[in-house]
Amino acid sequence: MKIVLAPDSFKESMTAKEACLAMEKGIKRVINEIEIVHAPMGDGGEGTLDALVDATNGEIYYKDVVAPLGNKVRARFGILGDKKTAIIEMAEASGLHLVDKDNRSPLITTSFGTGELIKEALDKDVDRILIGLGGSATNDAGVGMLQALGVRFKDKENNEVSYGGGELRKISSIDISNLDKRILSTKIEIACDVKNPLTGPEGASEVFGRQKGANDEIVKILDENLKHFANISRKIIGKDIDNIQGAGAAGGLGAALIGFCNGEVKPGIDTVIEYSRLEDKLKGADFVFTGEGSIDFQTKFGKTPAGVATLAKKYNIPVIAFAGKIGKEINELYSLGIDSIVGITPGVMELDKALKEGKNNLAVATENIVRIIAIKHSIL
């Protein structure tokens, strides 16, 4: 028997790799003679870096970069096993988790550190950079990132503009002559499931600004500033970065990567499936185990269990999904190829305890499912 383990991370409880190990532990409590294939997953957000580095036997690197509020933070990026592909999670340098709730303000937060990670990756002589755009603290249209890559943004007095979404309205000219030329000869893939445009009712500020610390008045200011930036950019690069799907991701970082760096947006889970070679690993599998911290009706919108199940369904492989929390309307997921959804929490408990005991709970839940499988296949 062959079982492929393809979970996402269980947020704040275990990485995708640790989830694989917990599943394997549960399986081997029941069956020892079995082929188990680890395929840690991600969907472009938190955990994608670790998942792809683990899946390809790559390497993690560290760099001190500018954090959202201008202080320094030690951030990670990865080089995959092919030695030519870098993986960056923008949240490592510019993530919301790096800013205390009381200090969150997209008027001043910057994506500069993400640009520094990109430069560091280019120094590793890569041909391709995969950038995950989940969890940003910024609403600066990627201007900070572009500043780190050499682009100069000046006001009417020819002074350099400072950090943050509040500065965009001051931009009078954009000088791209010093943009790091390596970025234009490197394939930039944007792992993102957000389809929002840069501005307007569905834009970066209106949809995501409040969770980053903006009130209604500031959201309006940020949206106007992004429109101003889009208009100035159009004159310089000849592209309408406002209405492109995905331009509003990560506070407009998507717009900068698409417009100035020739980036291409791809669904996060599809990208991870490609790089992890999951389709090859599925060959000859009898079952696929996937999962993540929470599964509900939103899982169908590009989340890991849905992406894994869709691919497994192509080969008629049964899929069992494990979750720390099972939400509403999960019936919609069964048509995607998920055959069963299993909660791992054994009973009512405090969230902190559930997170702390997540690995053990996943191992026990997996064991219980495998015991049912074993009975069916007369293995016990």
UniProtKB/TrEMBL annotation:
Q: Which Pfam family would be a valid example here? A: Gly_kinase
Residues annotated as coiled-coil are: none
Gene Ontology biological process terms, A to Z: organic acid phosphorylation
MF-aspect GO terms = glycerate kinase activity
What residue ranges are annotated as transmembrane?
Answer: none
Write the record's keywords in alphabetical order, separated by commas: Kinase, Transferase
**Of which family is this protein a member?**
Belongs to the glycerate kinase type-1 family.
- Protein name in the entry: Glycerate kinase
Q: Which organism is it from?
A: Clostridium sartagoforme
